[in-house]
Amino acid sequence: DIRHLDTIVQSYRYNNLNLEAFNSKDAFVASLVAGQGSGRAERAVVRDYPNLHHFAADVRHHEDGRTTVIILEPASAGNQENLPGYTELASALRYNLGSQCRMVVIEAEAQKSLSDCVTFALDFALVAYQERRTTFDQWHENLAAYGTIADNGVQDKKYGPFDRGLYHNYGIHLIKGWGVLPPVFYKHAHSRETLKGVEKRQPGSLETDVSTGSNKDGAESLEERMEAFSDRHGFRPRNISIEASRARKIRHALES
């Protein structure tokens, strides 16, 4: 996945998608500095170098010079493997952009495997683009104005920060994705327990249409997707939808 990431990313040329892959957090931060004040919306798949883990980012460069960054972590941002990458990123943003940049980290906890982060991150970046008008554009406006993605800056526990220590010590505003991300982000979630958590916090999510791309004409609910791609072999059933997503993205690159 890592070897072919650039090729796959370059195959997506939607209007104003501005999707790019970065092999390190430093390269990503440098791009944020270069884009200040441009008024551009950008999406990124970023490697937590030297680790192999990847995450997605949805970015807005506001014309007044502010930059807002919404990190989309496929798995967990707070675990011992991924957390150092986010503390380093937060530090680099403070050093290079100061108060002109605001960042939140939304951990989706959709990925339960060790090796699917590239495909999840790419999928998240594309879904963020798809959901820009309904969700992300407003989140960025809120983040720039209030320092939170909540409308009008209202205090609501679902918008975090979920870890006060991370927030006060490292400036990491952590949000749990189950309560805020559109259900389509969980189209490829590995675990049925994850979908139960999303449904509990966002009732009706399991019935939400999550068909995208070339499949948009045929409605498919989140629950139907899980059923269609459940692999019941082995000790623990798992959802292999992400494998289908990987195959489609490779095919998209080959046909472009």
Mean pLDDT: 88
Strand content: 15-25%
- Mind describing the biggest β-sheet? 6 strands, mixed
> What percentage of residues falls in helices of 4 or more residues?
25-40%
Main β-sheet, spatial strand arrangement:
1-2-3-4-5-6
Helix and strand string, N-terminal first? HEHEEEHEHHHEHHEEH
Terminal CA distance reads 18 Å
In the predicted model, the low-confidence regions spanning at least 5 consecutive residues are none
Number of strands: 8
The count of domains is 1
Structural class: alpha/beta
Counting H and I runs of at least 4 residues, what is the number of helices? 9
Shape call: globular
Rg over CA atoms, rounded to whole Å, is: 17 Å
Pfam families: Acetyltransf_14
Keywords: Acyltransferase, Transferase
Biased composition (Basic and acidic residues): 217-230
Protein name: PopP1 protein
Detailed description of the structure:
Residues 217-230 have a biased composition (Basic and acidic residues). Pfam families: Acetyltransf_14 (PF03421). Belongs to the acetyltransferase YopJ family. This protein has 256 residues and is α/β, with parallel strands linked by helices. The protein has one domain (2-182). The chain has 9 helices and 8 strands. The strands form 2 sheets. A 6-stranded mixed β-sheet has the order 1-2-3-4-5-6, sandwiched between helices. α2 packs parallel to α3 and α4 (117-130) crosses α5. The longest helix is centred in the middle third of the chain and has 15 residues, at 83-97. The radius of gyration is 17 Å and the shape is globular. The mean pLDDT is 88.
